[in-house]
Amino acid sequence: MNRLLIIKPPFMALGYLVIAIAVHFWIPLGVLFCYSSPVVGTIVLCLGFAVMTWGWALFRTRKATICPTEPTTVLVFDGPYRFSRNPMYLGISLILLGIAFCVGPAPFYLVPLAFFITINATFVPYEEKKLESAFGQEYLDYKKRVRRWL
Length: 150
Description:
By secondary structure, this protein is mostly helical. The chain is built from 5 helices and no strands. It has a domain at about 55-150: Four Helix Bundle (Hemerythrin (Met), subunit A) (Up-down Bundle), CATH 1.20.120. Helices cover about 65% and strands about 0% of the residues. The radius of gyration is 17 Å and the shape is elongated.
């Protein structure tokens, strides 16, 4: 198992934000690029929070495990899972992008990208293998119907 899988995705997102804050104060990259739009940022952040919470709430009501490394016993196909196989990760990515729009300096725009790349390269492949193993054709059919992200 990949060592990154030990870190839960919300804490990974928070860690990337802390790194962005440190970089912003130690290396003033804001002179290279700084764009803020609090209105756009708030809209994107709220959209991300809504998508993430919707996916999380469906998992809770179906008694599905939320932790990516725990055994999976239930597949969820409705709600945001009709449009994305990873709405909770998508929601966190949108929250991070919303924060970048609200704050503005360059390092904050790298946070959603770093989070997305990390999740897409580690957690998603791990979870897809786990779900294929647990649910077989049912999950493979779902993969054909619904895109990984959007």
